[in-house]
Specification:
14 helices, about 10% strand, about 300 residues, 4 strands
């Protein structure tokens, strides 16, 4: 085909992420970039509508033009956001001008009426779980990027679509905690179906909520930070500051304080610093980028 290795890899990714799903579903393909303000304004609209239309066979795929320049050039993308509807590997409509929820829904309704999309009512089986998994993944990615409010909105919609999905409920609780909406997080946790309460993901969310109880205001956090800096060998001061820093979203500072304690005295207070760090990992999720990086730091400290 005359493609170099990087271009072939880009084509393979596009086939897997967009073309293959489009063989049976209608794919909303959003070309965007981190620096694009209008893209960020449009994203919540696309996510909301895609979630509502998931049972009709609609899926959302986002393509960062900075990371996938070759694919963007093949579509002759001149400005962003550019949004296409894809079916069976081909663009069937330009959705770029549908900037409001009502406009997008109207356009999708017209397209779906003309195409043999495999949709239908949600089913209580693995098919529905597969439908909503894309939105759970999306919510986790948005939460990891630091936009807790938008992540909470995504998870909220998924819990309505699939009330028996533990990942969605857990994600909602963690996103609300990260957004500082602790009371709402408590209500969300209480609303988890009884059949899911023993799920490990719900346990992770419960841990995140319990850690939120250590939240302090900015003045108190600064006082604890200063105390930890002035008394670097005071393990109790380091632990208290780490808890407050983590609750305030200052994860790196929290990790630095605890890793310092572990380096000086790994068995202090029956391994309290390490136990607290492991609790942080549980709250964020073991696959969270911060948790992965900090676990590496812990391993190097413990095992050289």
């Amino acid at each position: 085909m005359g493609l170099n290795i990087d271009e072939q890899k880009a084509v393979d990714r596009f086939k897997k992420d967009v073309v293959d799903p489009s063989m049976k579903s209608l794919v909303i393909l959003d070309f965007w970039a981190e620096w694009c303000g209008p893209c960020k304004a449009l994203t919540p609209v696309l996510e909301k509508v895609a979630a509502e239309y998931a049972d009709k066979g609609v899926v959302l795929r986002k393509l960062n033009v900075d990371e996938e320049q070759f694919i963007a050039s093949q579509f002759q993308v001149k400005s962003i956001p550019t949004v296409y509807a894809m079916f069976q590997g081909q663009p069937v409509a330009d959705l770029t001008q549908a900037r409001t929820e009502s406009q997008l829904k109207q356009t999708l309704d017209q397209i779906l009426a003309q195409l043999p999309i495999e949709g239908g009512a949600p089913q209580q089986d693995g098919g529905q779980q597969q439908d909503v998994s894309q939105f759970v993944t999306m919510g986790e990615e948005v939460l990891a990027s630091g936009d807790a409010e938008r992540a909470a909105g995504i998870f909220q919609q998924v819990t309505q679509m699939a009330p028996d999905n533990p990942a969605a409920h857990a994600g909602l609780v963690r996103a609300l905690v990260a957004a500082g909406r602790v009371q709402e997080a408590e209500l969300a946790l209480a609303a988890v179906p009884e059949t899911l309460t023993d799920d490990p993901l719900i346990g992770q969310a419960r841990t995140a909520l319990s850690l939120a109880g250590t939240q302090v205001d900015d003045g108190e956090l600064q006082a604890l930070r200063q105390a930890a800096a002035e008394r670097p060998a005071d393990n109790d001061a380091q632990l208290v500051f780490a808890e407050a820093a983590f609750a305030a979203g200052e994860r790196d500072e929290a990790a630095d304080a605890l890793l310092g304690v572990i380096e000086r005295d790994p068995e202090w207070n029956e391994g309290a610093a390490r136990a607290k760090l492991l609790q942080f990992f549980e709250a964020t999720g073991l696959e969270d980028p911060w948790a992965v990086a900090t676990r590496r730091r812990l391993s190097r400290l413990l095992f050289g």
